[in-house]
Amino acid sequence: MSSTKILIVEDEEKIAELVKAYLEKERFTVTIANTGEKAISSMKEGFDLIILDLMLPDMAGEDICQAVREDSEVPIIMLTAKSGEEDRIKGLGIGADDYVVKPFSPRELVARVKALLRRVKGPKDLLSFNNGDLVLDSTRFEVRKNGRPLVLTPTEFKLLQCLAERPGQVFTRLQLVNVILGYDFDGYDRTIDAHIKNIRHKIEENQKKPSYLKTVYGIGYKFTGLPDED
Ligand code: CA
Fold it and tell me: What spacing in Å lies between the alpha carbon of 13 and ligand 1's midpoint?
């Protein structure tokens, strides 16, 4: 199997070299581009993942992200000093798959890289959480709570699957509408609340204190189950 190729787009040499060293320890093949122009011209080499700094001397990281997205689905992790929730959502809206806020620990970044690569390899057929308490089986569209099969509607299953594939990631209602309808439709976002309520009713022991589906006030929802090791 050929090595996984990662492109680091970062003008700060120290950071780029540090991240490169950590990734190479994990046997990734790493290329550094210190300008946006170099990043875009090296895209034809075909990378498996891009780590993209937002602040570059010649181009905004957001523009690079959009340019890459025009013809590539390569997973992108953005490095940013902007830590506001809105910036995160905006970043995800233009096609980044994950965010790491500076200053960051290289170890955390490597963990995110691995998680993202796992995710894009395709969703696992079985997602298991909290020591097997909650299991999503996407081959059978079945959810099991404590070993007992639950009946979820296809929409409920899709929503839960989307959230559970990215534990901890906050989804806006509109993003969730997109998951179930395939497009953004503003008038529909409140019905997400109704679906979430139904799913909670089925999977949560205490709906007032959910252990899986948490409300993020003013934004949306996130899944907080603890993934079980394979
Ligand atoms: Ca920079």
Answer: 9
